[in-house]
């Protein structure tokens, strides 16, 4: 190991005289510092081999040298910006494969998407990074790919990971063209002064029109596409060109090795054995194993017990310099202490100022999470606690409801974040949950001149006791090709949006600004925007403050019993539509029972929508053959189990699915 | 008499030593409270079910363990036996021989039921052999009920006479429908002509008074008129017993592949419920008592064998896939011939003994509820209370209260006279302590019966929360 370290130092100091001169085979040397099993598997195979750059066979071998230091001028930090399904993960996989970072036999699809959930949904939730070694013109380069999450809920995280890069690959499907998600992130990238390399992917598909799409990128984003790379990540076409372009176009990091340490945290996760693992990019100075460090925003001190690089498995290193990307473990107890955007500096030699752009996580959307079985409450608390260790944006506090029992009111960055948390609770912690409709924090001005904050419809002070309700508003900026201005304005109108201004930023694209109640946006606004603009519109928003609105509490009654969990706060003008949609959906979803069931939507005592569920007529198993009652009993037991999974609302058994679907519907119609 | 009809070939010499006595099954109801044990003294079974799995072909709705023979000789009567049948009966006799009677003091069998399959495909002398074996092993009471299932087109007058001659005294005739088209679309191996012939043979058979007609309602493309016609024909044939089964679409059957319950050509739920109500009405008008969800009879002609099941009493069972209930243990034999043969071998070797997981108290309470609520006699609350406790009984009653109110459940006194809701309420308030009048609860006919699954599963929820 000592040798290896010495070698790496040497490489930094005297790049020209690297002992690993191209073309000369070097005897195999064990890989430096390997302490964990997950690294071991990769490392036990790992050998520092020669750097025969020209020979394709050994270009994969060269990847094994990725721990070696290169001069800062040979470091390239980049990310990939792409719309969902445009092939980001496939391209990332190919880059890892081509550079030998991941051996072909270890390749599982979409290597960077670690969570099952990510791989299933094709989205990136947690960030990842991979250090690759690439040799061009006999010169070794260190390429760091920093993955970005692709959803508006995580735009803060996106902006921080962009801030850790100097360049970005803009991957656009050569048959689909530029889409919404891409745009918002491209603009973020342009704001961060990233060098953007346009890449037209999927050129192997029959519908590919790279020329047209290149022109589109030029028009919409205003990016020179004359040298856009045409590739097919799936077929492995154009990958070398991409790697070459990263080397030639993306600027190297600034050489600020002499400055005091400043490293940007762009992600962190909680490891049950080692505490929080922090992913960072060294902006200035250098960080060594054993350094006493300090996180500038949370003002806490730690010792960097372990540092290393991500490739994409963690590989320990002794020191990381300005421009490099890596991880550290410093017995940090919760990810909330190592918040994305925070700056790492040395305790003894503090940087003067933190890196710009840090902000606290503010939950925007709230909902109630209730365990289906009351005895899972403690498990839910524990699970939320564990998720919080790894998710600084998740907030929760206990709540109880007569229909749902004990649960938690939770705050999320947005709807996707909420869905992810819910799914992880169910999948990873085996909890069965009922989730109430998402809501925002209302301010209720009470008759006694008090102001109460309320995010839970069932806790809204009674109509007689409140003077007015204020709700949070957002300023929302929409970018759209001009063809979709009409449908988008309709959407804005439907969502109680107040039109502010519109101007054309290019001949074909317009920017619209609306003031919109946040409650209207936490629903499926984003999905609607995408579907109404065929995916071309993008949006950004910021909360601007509270405004008084004519809001009412809409209650749902099943067989005369109010179902608190289904209560919502809506604008008076929308109450009727929402009420009808909810009662109709419930009628579909509640299994018929042995008696007729009225389902009503009410404001106060006034019924505004009503449906009736007819009674079951027949449910009988007639034949009990040859005394074999076991099958019949099994069926009846199953039926009884089914009833257990239902929540009794008065005499009515309501299955969890009905709650779920109605809550989902609430998200859509509200 | 039976001896003479019993050919020598079926007196299988014992090729091996008598099997060692299997280890005595663990004490019944290990988890049962003493009260429960007192309520259910381990009665020796007085009933035996014998499965004769042979059919011409599989009906499209059937998922029972059967052996399809194809359309071989129409009325096998002794000579030229199908070896598949004789081999099977041989196996069956081995099972009977290897079965240890529950009591040594010899409680004789009171009912025997040959079910299938199509037992009428089995030659009478083989039926006789089985009867003989049962008699030899367990003894028969003075006038046992011996039922056999018969399908139209599988027997003639002579064969039925032979069966009656060997001791069969009750026939269950699988007619299912009185419409040629419906019979064909169910994949029945007979047509309407055979139905009428069979009815003629059965009603003309001397020494056979007790017979049942099986019908199926809610068949694909069945209309209300067709159903009324089937009921009329049934009533005209004057059977002493009628079984009306509501078509169940089972997975893995042809119907299961072709149809979805409630979707055309199957009748929708309303029509299907209506068929059930019509049957109840027409048969009651014709003097039949609706004594169980799917069974009707003239006074005194209940199927004693089936009543054993509803009363949760023990019974032996023999043959492929059959289910027995002995010493508190329910056991289903393997459904595949090879597995069944292996199992019989183990039984003989004494290497098989019933699973030791005897029913828990909860399960027994569930059995008791699900079986008794199928009958017009209903659930005996005093007995139930004795076995499973007053609290459980009270919880059940409380749960059923809204349904007593809506008329799906009927509370009855010791004379099985319906009680008013107010009287039921009084008992609920008294917690059944003093002056309690409610002795039974039953499901009403037809509305309660029609919702029996819902009502029984609610009861299950109370028993096993």
Give a description of the structure.
The complex is a heterodimer of chains A (670) and B (465). By secondary structure, chain A is an alpha+beta fold. In chain A, the strands form seven sheets. Chain A has an eight-stranded antiparallel beta sheet with strand order 11-10-16-7-8-15-12-13. A six-stranded mixed beta sheet of chain A has the order 2-3-1-4-5-6, sandwiched between helices. In chain A, strands 21, 22, 23, 24, 25 and 26 form a six-stranded antiparallel beta sheet that branches. In chain A, helix 15 (572-589) runs antiparallel to helix 17 (656-669). The longest helix of chain A has 18 residues, at 572-589. Chain B has 465 residues and is of the alpha/beta class. Chain B is 39% helix and 17% strand. A nine-stranded mixed beta sheet of chain B has the order 9-10-8-7-6-5-4-1-11, with helices on both faces. In chain B, strands 14-16-15 form a three-stranded antiparallel beta sheet. Chain B contains 17 helices and 16 strands. The chains are: A alpha+beta (670), B alpha/beta (465). Chains A and B meet through helix 16 of A and strand 8, helix 9, strand 12, helix 12 and helix 14 of B.
């Amino acid at each position: 190991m000592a040798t290896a370290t010495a070698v790496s130092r040497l490489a930094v100091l005297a790049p020209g005289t690297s002992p690993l001169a191209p073309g000369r085979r070097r005897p195999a040397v064990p890989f430096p510092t390997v302490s964990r099993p997950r690294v071991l598997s990769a490392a036990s195979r790992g050998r520092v081999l020669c750097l025969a750059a020209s020979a394709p066979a050994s270009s994969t071998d060269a990847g094994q040298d990725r721990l070696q230091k290169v001069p800062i001028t040979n470091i390239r930090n980049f990310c990939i910006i792409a719309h969902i399904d445009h092939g980001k993960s496939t391209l990332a996989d190919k880059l890892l494969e081509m550079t030998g970072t991941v051996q072909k036999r270890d390749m599982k699809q979409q290597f960077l998407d670690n969570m099952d959930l990510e791989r299933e949904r094709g989205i990136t939730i947690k960030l990842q990074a991979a250090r690759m070694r690439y040799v061009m013109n006999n010169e070794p380069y260190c390429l760091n790919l920093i993955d970005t999450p692709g959803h508006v809920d995580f735009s803060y995280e996106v902006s921080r990971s962009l801030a850790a890069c100097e360049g970005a690959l803009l991957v656009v499907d050569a048959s689909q063209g530029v889409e919404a998600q891409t745009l918002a992130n491209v603009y973020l990238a342009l704001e961060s002064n990233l060098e953007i390399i346009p890449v037209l992917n999927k050129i192997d598909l029959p519908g590919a029109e790279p020329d047209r799409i290149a022109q589109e990128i030029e028009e919409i984003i205003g990016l020179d596409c004359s040298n856009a790379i045409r590739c097919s990540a799936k077929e492995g076409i154009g990958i070398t060109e991409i790697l070459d372009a990263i080397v030639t176009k993306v600027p190297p990091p600034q050489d600020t090795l002499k400055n005091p340490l400043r490293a940007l945290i762009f992600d962190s996760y909680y490891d049950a054995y080692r505490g929080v693992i922090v992913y960072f990019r060294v902006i200035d100075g250098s960080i060594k194993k054993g350094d006493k460090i300090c996180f500038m925003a949370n003002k806490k001190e730690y010792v960097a017990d372990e540092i290393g690089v991500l490739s994409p498995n963690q590989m320990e290193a002794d020191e990381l310099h300005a421009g490099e990307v890596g991880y550290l473990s410093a017995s940090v107890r919760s990810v909330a202490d190592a918040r994305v955007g925070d700056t790492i500096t040395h305790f003894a030699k503090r940087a003067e100022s933190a890196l710009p752009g840090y902000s606290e996580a503010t939950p925007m959307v709230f909902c109630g999470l209730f365990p289906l079985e009351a005895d899972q409450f403690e498990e839910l608390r524990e699970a939320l606690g564990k998720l919080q260790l790894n998710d600084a944006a998740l907030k929760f506090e206990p709540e109880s409801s007569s229909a749902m029992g004990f649960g938690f009111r939770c705050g999320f960055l947005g709807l996707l974040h909420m869905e992810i948390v819910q799914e992880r609770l169910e999948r990873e912690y085996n909890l069965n949950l009922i989730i109430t409709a998402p809501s925002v924090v209302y301010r209720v001005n009470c008759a006694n001149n008090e102001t109460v904050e309320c995010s839970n419809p069932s806790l809204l002070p009674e109509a007689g006791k409140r003077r007015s309700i204020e709700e949070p508003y957002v300023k929302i900026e929409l970018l759209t090709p001009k063809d979709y201005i009409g449908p988008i304005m309709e959407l804005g109108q439907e969502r109680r949006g107040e039109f502010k201004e519109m101007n054309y930023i290019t001949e074909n694209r317009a920017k619209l600004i609306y003031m919109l109640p946040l409650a209207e946006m936490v629903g499926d606004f984003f999905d609607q925007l995408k579907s109404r603009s065929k995916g071309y519109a993008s949006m950004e928003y910021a909360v601007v403050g509270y405004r008084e609105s004519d809001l009412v509490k809409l209650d749902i009654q099943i067989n005369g019993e109010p179902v608190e969990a289904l209560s919502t706060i809506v604008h008076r003008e929308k109450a009727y539509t929402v009420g009808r949609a909810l009662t109709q959906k419930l009628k579909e979803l509640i299994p018929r029972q042995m008696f007729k069931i009225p389902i009503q939507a009410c404001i106060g005592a006034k019924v505004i929508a009503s449906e009736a569920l007819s009674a079951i007529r027949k449910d009988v198993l007639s034949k009990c053959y040859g005394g074999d009652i076991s099958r019949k009993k099994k069926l009846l037991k199953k039926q009884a189990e089914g009833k257990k999974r239902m929540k009794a609302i008065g005499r009515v058994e309501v299955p969890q699915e009905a709650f779920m679907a109605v809550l989902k519907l609430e998200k859509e119609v509200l | 008499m039976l001896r003479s009809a019993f050919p020598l070939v079926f007196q299988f010499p014992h090729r091996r030593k008598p099997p060692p006595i299997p280890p005595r099954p663990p004490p019944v109801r290990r988890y049962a409270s003493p009260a429960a044990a007192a309520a259910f003294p381990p009665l020796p079974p007085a009933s035996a079910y014998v499965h004769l799995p042979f059919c011409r072909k599989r009906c499209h709705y059937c998922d029972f363990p059967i052996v399809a023979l194809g359309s071989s000789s129409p009325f096998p009567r002794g000579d030229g036996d199908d070896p598949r049948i004789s081999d099977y009966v041989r196996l069956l006799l081995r099972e009977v021989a290897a079965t240890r009677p529950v009591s040594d003091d010899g409680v004789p069998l009171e009912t025997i039921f040959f079910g299938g399959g199509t037992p009428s495909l089995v030659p009478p002398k083989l039926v006789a052999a089985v009867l003989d074996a049962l008699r030899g092993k367990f003894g028969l009471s003075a006038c046992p009920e011996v039922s056999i299932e018969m399908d139209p087109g599988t027997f003639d007058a002579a064969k039925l006479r032979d069966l009656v001659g060997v001791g069969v005294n009750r026939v269950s005739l699988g007619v299912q429908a009185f419409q040629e088209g419906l019979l064909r679309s169910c994949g029945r191996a007979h047509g309407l002509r055979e139905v009428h012939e069979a009815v003629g043979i059965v009603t003309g058979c001397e020494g056979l008074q007790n017979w049942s007609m099986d019908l199926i309602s809610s068949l694909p493309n069945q209309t209300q008129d067709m159903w009324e016609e089937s009921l009329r024909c049934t009533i005209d044939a004057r059977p002493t017993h009628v079984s009306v089964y509501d078509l169940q679409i089972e997975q893995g059957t042809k119907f299961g592949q072709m149809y979805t319950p409630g979707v055309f050509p199957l009748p929708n739920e309303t029509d299907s419920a209506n068929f059930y109500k019509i049957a109840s009405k027409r048969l009651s008008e014709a003097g039949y008592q609706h004594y169980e969800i799917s069974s009707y009879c003239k006074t005194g002609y209940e199927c004693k064998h089936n009543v054993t099941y509803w009363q949760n009493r023990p019974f032996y069972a023999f043959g492929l896939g059959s289910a027995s209930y002995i010493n508190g243990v329910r056991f289903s034999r393997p459904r595949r011939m090879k597995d069944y043969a292996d199992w019989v071998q183990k039984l003989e070797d004494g290497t098989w003994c019933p699973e030791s997981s005897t029913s828990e108290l909860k399960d027994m309470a569930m059995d008791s509820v699900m079986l008794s609520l199928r009958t017009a006699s209903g659930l005996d609350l005093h007995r139930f209370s004795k076995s499973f406790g007053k609290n459980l009984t009270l919880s059940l009653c409380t749960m059923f209260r809204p349904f007593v109110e809506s008329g799906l459940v009927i509370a009855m006194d010791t004379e099985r006279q319906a009680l008013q809701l107010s009287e039921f309420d009084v008992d609920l308030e008294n917690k059944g302590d003093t002056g309690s009048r409610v002795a039974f609860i039953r499901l009403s006919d037809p509305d309660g019966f029609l919702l029996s699954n819902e009502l029984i599963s609610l009861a299950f929820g109370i028993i096993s929360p």
